[in-house]
Design brief:
Elements: H1 3-15, H2 18-25, H3 29-43, E1 48-51, E2 54-57, H4 59-86, E3 92-97, H5 99-116, E4 121-126, H6 129-137, E5 143-146, E6 156-161, E7 164-169, H7 171-175, E8 184-186, H8 192-203, E9 210-212, H9 216-224, E10 230-233, H10 238-243, E11 247-249, E12 256-257, E13 260-264, H11 270-280, H12 297-300
Parallel strand pairs: 3-4, 3-5, 8-9
Antiparallel strand pairs: 1-2, 5-13, 6-13, 7-10, 7-11, 7-12
Helix pairs in contact: 1-2, 1-3, 1-4, 2-3
Keywords: DNA-binding, Transcription, Transcription regulation
Organism: Actinomadura yumaensis
Domain HTH lysR-type: 1-58
Length: 302
C-alpha cells in the first residue's frame, strides 16, 4: 500500500477514467490498472468495477478514496511541517481561497508576502466554498480564506477581516427596485454567496426572477449591465461603485456582516503561522477574540 498506489487510485477516483488518470500522472494506462489492482488485493475488496468501456468506484472504493485523500494530504502536511520547522522562511504554504477572496483580498497580500519572504514555496487553489473546506479537511491545504468554517470541521480560526455583503444594481434598475419582483443575478450552486442570497430571499419570503451566471465577474458584469441586482461582497465591486456603474441598494436587512476567516487545521505549520503574522500586520485584519473562560462553581465561591 504505497504512496504511489494511493495517488494513482485517487487520480482514478477524481477523473473517473483510467485514460484520464494516466494522463494526469504521466504514466501508462496499464500502470494505472496494475496499481489499482494491487491496492485492491492488499485490501481484499474490489475498488472499481467495469461500466461499458469505463470504470467506476464500488461502494468500498468510494469510501476508501476519502481516506486515501486524507492520508496523502497528511503526508504532504507532514513534509510541509518538517520543512517549515527547519526554516519557516523556506517552507511550503498551500493556500485555498474562495473566488472573491482570491480576486479581491489575496493579491496584495501575496505580493507583499512574496517580497518579504521570497523563498516560501507558495501554492494557491481557488474554488467554491465546499471545495476549499474539503481541501482543509483532507489536509490538502494549510490555510483557507473564506467565510465562516463549517461547524463540524476540526479547524482553527487565526485571523478575521470585515466583509460586507451589499445589494447592488445598475442605477436605472436600482431606482425602481422592489424586493419581491426585481430580477436577481446569482452565482452557480455551491457558491457561499449564492447560498447566502437564497437564504436572504427566503427569510424575506420573496421569490423574484433569478438569472444564474457562472462566476463572480459575470455576476458583477451582469448587474452593471442591468440584468438584475446582486448580493455581493463590497470588496468585489469597489471599482464599479466608484465609477457609478453600480450603486448600493437599500434593501431590508442589508448590509450583511460576513467576515473573511483565515482558517488552518488544529496544528498550523510554522510557515502557515509566518503568513498569518504577515496577514495580521495588513490593514483590516485582526486576531479572533480569545474565548471567555467558563466560570466554575469554585470560581464563584468567596
Amino acid at each position: 500500500m504505497t504512496e504511489g498506489r494511493l495517488r494513482t487510485f485517487v487520480a482514478l477516483a477524481d477523473t473517473g477514467s483510467v485514460r484520464a488518470a494516466a494522463a494526469r500522472l504521466y504514466v501508462t494506462e496499464s500502470a494505472v490498472s496494475a496499481a489499482v489492482a494491487a491496492l485492491a488485493r492488499d485490501l481484499d475488496v474490489p475498488l472499481v468495477q467495469r461500466v461499458g468501456r469505463g470504470v467506476r468506484l464500488t461502494p468500498a472504493g468510494t469510501v476508501y478514496a476519502a481516506y486515501a485523500r486524507r492520508v496523502l494530504g497528511l503526508l504532504e502536511q507532514g513534509r510541509a511541517a518538517a520543512r517549515g520547522a527547519a526554516d519557516p522562511a523556506r517552507g511550503p504554504l498551500r493556500l485555498a481561497a474562495v473566488t472573491t477572496a482570491a480576486d479581491q483580498v489575496l493579491p496584495a497580500l501575496l505580493a507583499s508576502f512574496r517580497a518579504r519572504w521570497p523563498e516560501v514555496d507558495l501554492a494557491l487553489e481557488v474554488g467554491p466554498r465546499r471545495h476549499v473546506w474539503r481541501s482543509l479537511a483532507a489536509h490538502e491545504a494549510d490555510l483557507v480564506l473564506a467565510g465562516r468554517p463549517p461547524g463540524d470541521l476540526a479547524a482553527t480560526v487565526l485571523a478575521l477581516r470585515p466583509n460586507e455583503l451589499v445589494v447592488v444594481g445598475a442605477p436605472d434598475l436600482a431606482a425602481g427596485f422592489a424586493l419581491p419582483s426585481t430580477p436577481w443575478v446569482m452565482r452557480e450552486p455551491g457558491s457561499g454567496t449564492r447560498a447566502t442570497a437564497e437564504a436572504y430571499l427566503a427569510e424575506h419570503d420573496v421569490a423574484p426572477p433569478r438569472l444564474v451566471l457562472g462566476s463572480n465577474g459575470a455576476v458583477v458584469a451582469g448587474a452593471a449591465a442591468g440584468l438584475g441586482v446582486a448580493l455581493i461582497s463590497r470588496d468585489a465591486v469597489g471599482g464599479e461603485l466608484r465609477a457609478g456603474r453600480l450603486v448600493v441598494i437599500d434593501s431590508p436587512g442589508t448590509p450583511l456582516d460576513r467576515p473573511w476567516h483565515a482558517v488552518a487545521g488544529p496544528a498550523p505549520t510554522a510557515t502557515t503561522r509566518l503568513f498569518v503574522q504577515h496577514l495580521l500586520q495588513a490593514p483590516h485584519w485582526t486576531a479572533p477574540p480569545a474565548p471567555v473562560p467558563a466560570v466554575t462553581e469554585s470560581d464563584s465561591k468567596p
